[in-house]
Structure formats: C-alpha cells, structure tokens
Design brief:
Blueprint lengths: L8 H17 L5 E3 L2 E5 L6 H14 L8 H5 L12 E4 L28 H6 L4 E8 L8 H4 L4 E5 L2 E6 H14 L5 E7 L7 H11 L16 H4 L3 E8 L15 E4 L2 H4 L4 E6 L5 E7 L11 H20 L4 E5 L12 H18 L7 E4 L7 E2 L2 E2 L5 H8 L7
Parallel strand pairs: 3-4, 3-13, 4-7, 7-8, 8-9, 11-12, 12-13
Antiparallel strand pairs: 1-2, 4-5, 5-6, 9-10, 10-11, 14-15
Helix pairs in contact: 1-2, 11-12
Length: about 400
C-alpha cells in the first residue's frame, strides 16, 4: 500500500480513507442474495465496509470537491491525457429514461445504467461521457411529436433516453465554462446502423458548432492536460462501415474506428484512432458486456474481472496507450437483463481492486451507476466511492 507523506489535513484524511477501506476489504466479507450467486460481494452483508468508507469520505470532503479536481491535482503537472486515471460512465444519459420509453413488460431498469444526472456525475468526478446517438424520426420509444421530426436523440439501443443531443452538449459546455481547469472526453457513437451516414453526422456536427471554442482541435495521440483544459475532447466511435470523409469536414475530433461488432463482443480488441493531424495510433478497448458462458453464473463476474484486470495491466505497461475499460455488465437472469444486478457485484469488486492498487495506471474506466450507493431494482449498486477513488489515485502516479 502506497503511503502519503503530505501532512495537510486533506492528505491525512486521504490516508484515513484508503486505510479504512483497505482494512475493511481485507476482512473478506462475502454473502448471498436470493437471486445473486453465492461467493460474491453484496452490500447488505458488507455494511460495515461501506459505513467505514462513508465515515472516512466525510472526513475527507464532500463529493462537490470533485467538480474541479483536475485543476487541483494537476496544478503543477501536465500529464498526457492517456496516462491520467479518468472515471467515466457507460451510457451516460440513461438516468433520464422513463417508463414511456420502454417496451411493455419491462421497467426503466431494463436499460438504465446511471442514477445521477450529468451535473451529479460531474460533481462526483466523472470526466468521460459515453453518448449514443440516433434519429428520433420513426422511433416507437419517443413522444409522438418527436417521432415525426429528425432530431438527434440520446438512445440506449432502440430506447430513447428522454433527452436530445443539443441539450446534452449545452449542459457539458456549461460545466466547462463554470470549471475552466477541467477537461472531459465526450465519446460519440451512432446507435442505429441506419443513421450511420453523412447526413446524420452533419446534423451532429451542426449541433456542436456553436460550442466550437470549447472543443479541442488538432488533437494528437500525445495530447496533454494543458492542451485540453477548459475544453471537451470529442472522440467519434464509429465502426468501419462509417461513411468516408476524405476532407475531414465532419471530423469533430479524433475518430476511433472499430473493426466490427464481432470484435466488440470478444474479450479483447484494439481500435485505430485517427487523429486530426493525420496520424493514427492503437487503442485498447475492453467492452465485453456478455462475458460469462451462461450469463447467470458466477463465471460471468470472474471472467469480467479478469478482462478488466488485463486491460489495467495494458495501461500500466504502456502509459502512452489509450485504454478504455468498460466495467458495465449485462446479465440474463430469470428472464431479465438488468444492469443493477451486475453493478451490485462489479462495483463492489472494482472498489476493492482500486483500493488495493491505488498507485496503478488504469486509463479510462466507464462504469454503471457511478457515484450512486442507492438500492435500484432490488440491488445495492455500490458505485458511490468509485469515481472519488479513481480520481484520488492520480495523486500517486508518476507521469511521462
């Protein structure tokens, strides 16, 4: 365990937080729940662990301290963006999903992966936002008037998140104006194959253009914090079937080209990032959301944990590599595919992992239910301390 030598109250409290958490984790709390496999962590049986964590966190500071964490941690440093430990969210805007956006027979829990809104996520330290875009026209999950309009909506698969891209980008811009020492990565993905064309991408481009001064331009693989401060780095996550853009007129930022959907569902894949200076680089992405052989057994979580650990090792070994590690999981259990069940286990595991490897490079971690400790759909989602711990781990790192 790395020891902090800073004698300030903040530094001492930081030691307190990590020490208490680490000690609690080492007690090895395990338990079970009626519909959760045995041998996995569950908040109900590990209440003492979370009570200790909350007590230590309260002595350290409130979550709103993290609205400008980069400005404090990096005030005398200028790391590569790729070597920073950045907490992010998977399907960032699903907290806005309502019952009317979901098909009959399901509840919003079917597609909800977050409980905090964008401002709540920002204040708890989140700086990577995963945004899925689709045209509202013809969608059965949007209000009738929207289904007749060509709006750029936020979706999770075919389900509308009750918010459009123009509002999303405006709110991110407002957060950057209020916190000019910060930067954030905005990952854009077209959720429907039918929308993967130049006309739709042009609409996205036109929505971004009024905020052009808040967008990072001419990004390179070696871009650093000072180059991005006060701006968003737009990362376009297209597939290889994306339309060609030879003059880069629709290139809002670096483009991550994913070879195929099949590779996304494998346990390991790399992507090519095409930077705005014309160069390319390799990125490691772990987005295996169906890791287990049956999706109902303990193997799901042990497999997922091993995949995440492998990508943490990539980030530690090559600090210039862009590593995106999705913690999100999709579990088919008793006919349901709810994310809260997976988060109950994975967020608890990831919390213990970060505590035990606090001085390690992780890259970007996109999580479900980040910053929330609520019970959702019958499960403690266990995400409250993850963004704070990932943010604080940056104090321990050595930068290139």
């Amino acid at each position: 365990m790395h020891t902090v030598t800073n004698s300030s109250r903040r530094g001492q409290a930081h030691v307190c937080l990590l020490s208490l958490l680490f000690a609690a984790v080492m007690t090895g709390c395990t338990g079970s729940k009626t519909n959760v496999p045995e041998e996995v962590l569950d908040k109900e049986e590990c209440q003492e662990f979370y009570n200790l964590a909350e007590e230590a966190l309260d002595s350290y500071g409130t979550s709103t301290d993290y609205a400008a964490w980069m400005g404090e941690i990096f005030k005398d440093k200028n790391p590569l963006i790729s070597e920073m430990n950045i907490p992010g969210t998977h399907d960032t805007f699903t907290s806005y999903i309502r019952q009317e956006n979901i098909e009959s027979g399901h509840t919003p829990a079917f597609k909800k992966t977050q409980l905090l809104d964008i401002e709540g996520q920002w204040n708890t330290g989140i700086r990577c936002f995963d945004i899925r875009l689709a045209n509202t026209r013809g969608s059965s999950t949007v209000p009738t008037e929207l289904a007749e309009m060509d709006e750029v909506g936020i979706f999770h698969t075919e389900y509308y998140c009750s918010i459009n891209f123009d509002e999303v980008i405006s709110r991110i811009a407002d957060l950057l104006r209020k916190h000019p020492t910060e930067t954030c990565i905005v990952m854009l993905k077209v959720e429907k194959d039918s929308d993967l064309n130049n006309d739709f991408i042009r609409k996205v481009y036109d929505i971004v253009m009024p905020y052009d001064s808040l967008v990072v331009h001419n990004a390179t693989a070696n871009i650093r914090y000072e180059d991005c401060k006060g701006k968003m780095l737009l990362l376009q996550r297209w597939t290889s079937e994306a339309p060609q853009d030879p003059d880069h007129s629709l290139q809002l930022g670096p483009v991550m080209v994913i070879d195929s959907q099949a590779s996304i569902e494998s346990d390991s894949y790399t992507t090519t990032i095409c930077w705005q200076d014309g160069t390319t680089s390799k990125s490691y992405v772990q987005d295996n959301y169906e890791a287990g052989p049956t999706h109902t057994s303990i193997e799901y979580w042990t497999d997922k944990q091993s995949y995440m650990t492998r990508y943490f090792e990539y980030a530690e070994t090559d600090k210039s590599a862009w590593v995106f590690n999705y913690e999100s999981g999709y579990v088919n259990h008793v006919g349901n595919t709810y994310y809260s069940m997976s988060s109950n286990v994975m967020n608890a595991w990831l919390t213990t992992y970060v505590i035990g490897h606090i001085n390690q490079h992780y890259g970007i971690i996109n999580m479900d239910f980040a910053g929330s400790n609520d019970v959702y759909d019958g499960y403690h989602v266990n995400g409250k301390y993850l963004p704070v711990l990932i943010v604080e781990s940056n104090r321990f790192l050595e930068y290139i």
